Amino acid sequence: MSLQLLASTIEELPWALRDQVYSYAETVKRAMPAIFSQTETPFNQAKADKIIYLAGIKKLRSIINSNHWILYNSSQMLNRQQVEKIKIGGQDFSKGSDLTTNLRKLNQEVEAVIIANQLQELLMMDYSTLVSTDL
Amino acid sequence: MDIAAIQASIKKVISKHKTAFQKLGANQSKLLELGSITGTAQHFMSLGYSVNVVNPSSKSEFIVKTSTQGFPWNFSHINVSSGASIFELHMNLMVESAHDTGIYCVDVGVAMPGIVPKSQQKTPWACLPNKDLLTFAEAKKLVVYPMLLAQFIGIVHEIKPDFLTNPATASSPMFPTLISLGHFSGNSANIVQKYAVRQFNIWIAENFDTRLSKVNLGLAASPFL
C-alpha cells in the first residue's frame, strides 16, 4: 500500500528520479521486518507503511538538497577565484542561470512542505528510531 | 503524520516544477563531477595550498569535463601550490595503470605539474603516466554499500596500489578518495573503520553534499576529513 501511494505521489517525476526514490523505498520495505525485529518491536504493518512512505520523501528531499548544495558551494568556491560562468556539457550552471534558480526555488518549496507537515525531525531519524516513535 | 496532506503538497510541488525536475534528472552526474573537483580544491586549501583556476577559453568561464571524451586542453583545471609542492587537478583524466598498459579514467586526478598537455598536440595524447599521478578521487551518486567499497579498493589497487601497501604514503596531502552522495549502508561503516588498522591510506567521503555544505558554513576545513 505504502509503495503504491508513493508511486502515485511521484508519478510526474522523470523516470531517473522516480526510479531512485522508488528503489530506495523498496529497499527500506525489504528491511522493515528486520528493523522491527532488531528493536524487539512487534511488526506493525500500518507503521511500516508510514515509514516506507517517509523513506521515499527522505530520498526525494536528499536528491534535491544535495544537488542544490553542490551547485551552490561549487559556485561560491569558483566565484572566489573570479570565475563568473560554469559550463557543463555546453549548459550554463552559473549563479543566476535557469537551472540554478529553479533548483534553489525547488529546494525552498520542498523544505517548506517538510516544515508545514512537521517532518523535519522524523526525516533525521534512523529507521530503528522511527519504529519506536509515535507517527 | 497526515500522509494525505503530505502527498497533496509533494504532488503539487512536483507538478509545479516539472521542468526543473527534468533538468535535475538529466544533470545529476554532471553536478557531482563539478562538486568533486571543487571539493578537492577545498581540501588542498584546507592544507594551506593556494588555488588558481585555469580556464581554456575565457578567464572567467569554468568548463567541466564530464566524460572520457575530449582533450584536457579544452577543459578547465585547477592548480594548487604550497611552496615547492605544486599539483594540477584535472577532471575525467586518463591515467595509465600501475601494473600494465591499461588506461583508466579517474573522476578527479591530482597530477604532477606540466605533464597534462595544455594545448593541442602533434601526436595523440593517450594518458598521464602513472608515476605522474599523485592521487585521485572517484565520485558515485550512490549509498556506500560494501561491494562499492570493494570495487573502490580494486580501483586503488590498479591505479595507486602504494596507498594500500606502503605506509610512507601516509604523508601524501590527499589519499585516494571515494566521494559519495549517500550514507553508509549495511555494515559499510564497520568495513571503513578497519581501513586504518589495515594501513589502507584511502578516504571515504560519504554524504559529500553535507560535507561541502559544512565547509561552506565554516564548520569544517576539508570535505574529505
Lay out the secondary structure.
The complex is a heterodimer of chains A (135) and B (225).
Chain A: H1 2-9, H2 15-38, H3 45-79, E1 85-88, E2 91-92, H4 98-116, H5 120-124, H6 127-131
Antiparallel strand pairs in A: 1-2
Helix pairs in contact in A: 1-3, 2-3, 3-4
Chain B: H1 3-16, H2 18-46, E1 50-54, E2 61-64, E3 77-82, E4 85-96, E5 103-111, E6 133-140, H3 146-159, H4 162-165, E7 177-180, H5 188-197, E8 203-205, H6 208-216
Describe the structure.
- The complex is a heterodimer of chains A (135) and B (225).
- Chain A has one domain (2-131).
- Chain A is 71% helix and 4% strand.
- Chain A has six helices and two strands; from the N terminus they run H-H-H-E-E-H-H-H.
- Chain A has helices at residues 2-9, 15-38, 45-79, 98-116, 120-124, 127-131, and strands at 85-88, 91-92.
- Chain A has a two-stranded antiparallel ribbon with strand order 1-2.
- The longest helix of chain A is centred in the middle third of the chain and has 35 residues, at 45-79.
- Chain B has 225 residues and is of the alpha/beta class.
- Chain B has a single domain (30-216), classed as 3-Layer(aba) Sandwich (Restriction Endonuclease).
- Helix content of chain B is 36%, strand content 23%.
- Chain B has a seven-stranded mixed beta sheet with strand order 1-3-4-5-6-7-8.
- The longest helix of chain B is centred in the first third of the chain and has 29 residues, at 18-46.
- Chain B is globular, with a radius of gyration of 19 Å.
- The interface between A and B is large, with 55 and 54 residues.
Summarize the structure.
Chain A is mainly α and 135 residues long.
Structure characteristics:
heterodimer; A: 135 residues; mainly alpha; 71% helix; elongated; B: 225 residues; alpha/beta; Restriction Endonuclease; seven-stranded mixed beta sheet; 6 helices; 8 strands; 23% strand; globular
